[in-house]
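Action item from last week, closing it out:
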Amino acid sequence: MDLEKLFQIQVVIAFAMLVLPGFLIMKIIRLKIPNKDFLLKDVIFEAISYSLLNLSIIGWLPYVFFNMNLPVLGILLSIFSVTISPVLLAFFYIKILSSKLFQKYLDIQMPTAWDWYFSQRPNVITLVHLKNGDEIIGYFGENSYATSYPNDGSIYLEKVYTRDKNGTIKLVQNSNGILIAK
């Protein structure tokens, strides 16, 4: 293998180790904590910071196995440190941020009150007021869904109820729920 090809492989590996884990962490965190979309130029340093954290925790292990002349384990740990450990780190980070202790001292900003409320995954009866004055009563539970920022506030309610003239609320039988778009 000539020197140019070796250099190209090293650049690809360096890129994979220094950038990809950070972007993976950021994408997973943004799945749980809504945030605006981002451009690469705006978040490259954040991605590299997350990647360096990932490298400091587990990224050094492949080199230990390479130096022990165990290349297969070194390669497997390299793949693990670029793909699996960032996912685990992101879930750990989300778990810490959502813990009562951290929520007591930190104010995790959600873009909208809608995002904050539905991120709590409440099991609630919801009353939706439509623009035409009608009301929809539904149940937001495990199988319900509410969009998050930057998407409009649409909601799927897994159960639908009706209210008669006396105010009695009854479940609509054989319903697949209702999707209400903003």
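Closing note: The chain has a mean pLDDT of 81.
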